[in-house]
Amino acid sequence: MGSSLPSSTKAGIQAAETEKAKDTAIIDVKALSTAITGRFGALPETGIHAIPRIPAYILKKNKNLYVPRSIAIGPYHHGKKHLQAMEQHKFRYLQDLLKRSNANAFSANACLEGLLKKMEAMEAKARRCYSEDIKLKKTEFVQMMVLDACFIIEFLFKLDDRKGNISDVGFGGLQSIDTDLLLLENQIPFFIIEELFELLGAESNKRTFLTSHLYNHLTSENFFGAENREKQPKNPQEIHHLLHLYYHWFIGNTKERRESEKTSDKNEQIREDVIPCATVLHEAGVSFRKKILPGHNFDITFKKGVMEIPAIRIEDPNMHCFANLVAFEQSIRCETMKMTSFTLLMDSLLNTEKDVAILQRCDVIDNTLGSEKVVARLFNQLGVYGPIKKNHFAEIFRQVNRYRNNKCNKYRARLVHDYFNTPWAILSLVAALVLLALTLWQSFFATYSYFHPP
To answer: pTM for the full model?
Structure first.
């Protein structure tokens, strides 16, 4: 009977038997267990020490905000073709840095060997700072870290030498390098910079020199106004990378809202996660003003229908920094996400170019991009990447929604939207009112002359 089966049927039976044999094959459990546990040692450290990869769903919105344009720092973008032009400048900066250290009676070769040995000792710890396994060989990884750390150190020296005017930073220019140094995926652990800087023997107080020069230079990259930049804030006890330090200076030190400001009734159900756009609020009688001498970067208040916001400078480098600060905050998952909360607020206010124009007219937004539509799209693309445990502006949201839900303000908003939304609508309404007044005036005189004939 088996010989009478068609050849296609026989082939099917053979394939089924082969698959069954595969399923019942005995695996080497011990070897598989060893292979799995062997990967444990390469896992990155958990928590905010890790330098994470930005998730694909964030990159999909606007990849250009997160990818370096001139220089690769660290392993994530190492070796990319469009960044090769700056690699030769890293070697030149390393050479210049070694010449500085040569004044301390060390030869350049001996100094370089010391840097490489020091980095070799820190290699395992440095690899664990990244959220994914780095495929570079040991020699490549050590060389990359030494070149990148020394580039940053010499970059600061050159800023100090020439008082911020660097003409030989290479292809891309100073502004492009500044932007790239504050990208989340373009970081190296800060302890590497500190340890190599100490080995060079250029300064006794390594952290004070590094952070003070970084602060003086990076202050200009802040997207908030310059009113609150008179004194450098204290450094955190542990600095994980340059973007973390920047976040601590300009975001992390922001004061929490005082409990006395939180006056909402807990029984009153007012939304604290969304507010209408600036145009709708403007129609409802809300005014926007630039905050004069704000106490901190997020010193936003709402009183009696007036929202005061510190000035925000919108330009290309700042938006890169803004986006990466939001991504960094999402990666560390802190309790109060101030940057994410601010993004939620601005994303709610700025839906269209009309909304941007309203904030521009009152000097809240200083737009150097030229197009209001581009600004609105940038904030809409940033959006909110994840849940917020504690909205820093929850009370502002409640106050705004309570004001708008007031019946008088609702009627005012409807009147403005229906009859004062365009100049022609206003002219038509004025013309109708004038015609009504003339008609009433004529009716009055006609009635008066009827009862009081001349």
So the answer is: 0.78
